[in-house]
């Protein structure tokens, strides 16, 4: 079977898992790819959990992922902040995600001044008006706004929820600052993943359930874009001005595009 792709980037929520549980066929699909010579990275905008949690989740299913196979905005941001010589970082991220920033100088959790960077991710139910106002005060007092992605919303177990971009946009509007975006849809995030894969962009696909932040943004840097009809997909997404290279029912349909045999009983649907 001839392969149309040589490398693969996979979104996490809505593509591999939903509500913290793997979608049907995902463990078998990942096992097939990992057993081949196809380079793979999970390229997720999740900021609620550290990479360690993602790796452990899949290892419990018998999928031998390693931390370097997972690229998330917190991991990339920690590297970037270190390179910037950050002196005082204020984190607005989920508690478990803070471990990705180990070794960086952090300000007191109640401080309203003295930071040179404010890092905003998804804090889930911990978001509140006081938290947003503290971030605002830090920014007005001289800090630079760093966004861990600009996703609009995502599908949680209880339904759609606001994603990081909604909170960042509020702070950007209030302060007049353009955020430094680390995560999808920023081109640098995709390029970092491509560098790790070592595969040309035109032979690599990004698989996602967000036609703008996953598919459209990936296509902007020369990647192929595959839209899955799982997660937050809606039929009207196909009328938003982005034309995916492939539209497939779920991620397991990507295997034949990689030249991999599958016994899951289906073939990919091209531009449904």
Q: What would the keywords be for this entry?
A:
272 residues, alpha/beta, single chain, Rossmann fold, 7 helices, 27% helix
How are the SSEs ordered, and which strands pair?
Blueprint (H helix, E strand, L loop, with lengths): L6 E4 L6 E2 L2 E2 L3 H9 L5 E4 L7 H9 L10 E2 L1 H11 L5 E4 L24 E4 L8 H12 L3 E4 L5 E4 L2 E4 L1 H12 L4 E2 L5 H11 L6 E5 L2 H10 L3 E5 L17 E3 L24
Parallel strand pairs: 1-4, 1-12, 4-5, 6-7, 7-8, 8-11, 12-13, 13-14
Antiparallel strand pairs: 2-3, 9-10
Helix pairs in contact: 4-5
Tell me briefly what this model is.
It is built from seven helices and 14 strands. It has 272 residues and is α/β, with parallel strands linked by helices.
Describe the structure.
The protein has 272 residues and is of the alpha/beta class. The chain folds into 2 domains: 7-45 and 184-258, 3-Layer(aba) Sandwich (Rossmann fold), CATH 3.40.50; 74-181, HAD superfamily/HAD-like (Rossmann fold), CATH 3.40.50.1000. 27% of the residues lie in helices and 18% in strands. The chain is built from 7 helices and 14 strands. The chain has helices at 26-34, 51-59, 73-83, 129-140, 164-175, 187-197, 211-220; strands spanning 7-10, 17-18, 21-22, 40-43, 70-71, 89-92, 117-120, 144-147, 153-156, 159-162, 180-181, 204-208, 224-228, 246-248. The strands form 4 sheets. Strands 5-4-1-12-13-14 form a 6-stranded parallel beta sheet. Strands 6-7-8-11 form a 4-stranded parallel beta sheet, covered by helices on one side. Strands 2-3 form a two-stranded antiparallel ribbon. The chain is globular. It starts with 6 loop residues before the first strand and ends in a 24-residue tail after the last strand. The model is unreliable at 265-272 (pLDDT under 50).
């Amino acid at each position: 079977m001839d392969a149309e792709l040589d490398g693969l980037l996979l979104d996490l929520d809505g593509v591999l898992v939903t509500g913290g549980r793997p979608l049907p066929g995902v463990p078998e699909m990942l096992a097939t790819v990992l057993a081949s010579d196809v380079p793979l990275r999970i390229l997720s905008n999740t900021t609620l959990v550290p990479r360690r949690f993602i790796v452990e989740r899949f290892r419990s299913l018998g999928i031998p992922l390693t931390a370097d196979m997972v690229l998330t905005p917190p991991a990339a941001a920690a590297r970037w902040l270190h390179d910037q010589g950050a002196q005082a970082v204020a984190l607005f991220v989920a508690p478990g995600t803070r471990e990705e920033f180990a070794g960086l100088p952090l300000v007191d959790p109640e401080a309203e001044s003295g930071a040179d960077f404010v890092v905003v991710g998804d804090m889930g139910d911990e978001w509140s008006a006081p938290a947003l106002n503290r971030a605002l005060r830090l920014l007005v007092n001289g800090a630079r706004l760093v966004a861990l992605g600009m996703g609009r919303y995502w599908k949680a177990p209880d339904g759609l929820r606001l994603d990081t971009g909604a909170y960042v946009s509020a702070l950007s509007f209030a302060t007049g600052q353009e955020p430094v975006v680390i995560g999808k849809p920023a081109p640098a995030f995709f390029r970092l993943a491509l560098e790790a894969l070592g595969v040309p962009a035109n032979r690599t696909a990004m698989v996602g359930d967000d036609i703008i932040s996953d598919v459209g943004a990936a296509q902007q840097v020369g990647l192929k874009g595959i839209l899955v009809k799982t997660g937050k997909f809606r039929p009207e997404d196909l009328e938003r001005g982005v034309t995916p290279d492939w539209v497939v029912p779920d991620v397991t349909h990507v295997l034949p595009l990689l030249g991999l045999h599958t016994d899951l009983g289906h073939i990919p649907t091209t531009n449904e």
